[in-house]
Amino acid sequence: EGDCYLLTRPLEFTLSSDADAVPVDAGTVFASAENGVARTGQGEEVLLVGGRFSFGDRARALLLDSLPPVVHVPAGSGEADALRWALDQIDQELRWRPMGSSLVARHLAVVMLVHVLRLHYSQEPRTGSGWTAGLADPVVATALTAMHTAPEHPWTVAELAQVCAVSRSTLAARFKDAVGQGPLDYLTHWRIELASARLRRGTDTLATIAGAVGYGSESALSSAFKRVTGTSPRAYRNRHRTG
Question: Which of 8, 52, 74, 115 has its CA 20 to 30 A from that of 63?
Fold first, then answer.
């Protein structure tokens, strides 16, 4: 009772309170949900609370590719207690709908995700590579923080190394070892993820987006965007508007 799970891949799975129970397709169960609550079987012996996070393609790769398919948070751990508190708060926000309830619930969900990641990396600090693995190295974490804080800045490896108080070669080697790519390659992908989010959600011009994510012109953004995603910014925006 009280265990939590983070599923990082779209894999089929079965949940049951009895190993002999016949599985029921989740689509059938949720089709009859009322006010977000679905019931199946008899009695009240099991209560499951679930949700999902939506990421852009590059954000999903940066965050989830280094994680196993299932991250288990056992009941009784400090993180499980924090998750239970957050779930209780989300339940109250969505049940009573006070002002700003949806915004508060979304931020509480992010708090839950952070606690799950904290537990996983405290137990397995170097599982694979990627953004989250880079946070375990203080030098790499400093470089990541600098790039995430000011993606519009014209960063060079030399300047990032100065921020991290190490040599260029040390930063390049440690960053590649932890994250799986060089600092500037990572920065390019992060900028394109930021640009993608703005293209999906806003109406800013390409020139405005280019300046905000570190490109000096619309053409420079378009070139980098197509190199990373295989499509142009305009085509990407149009596809998500019609999709």
Answer: 74
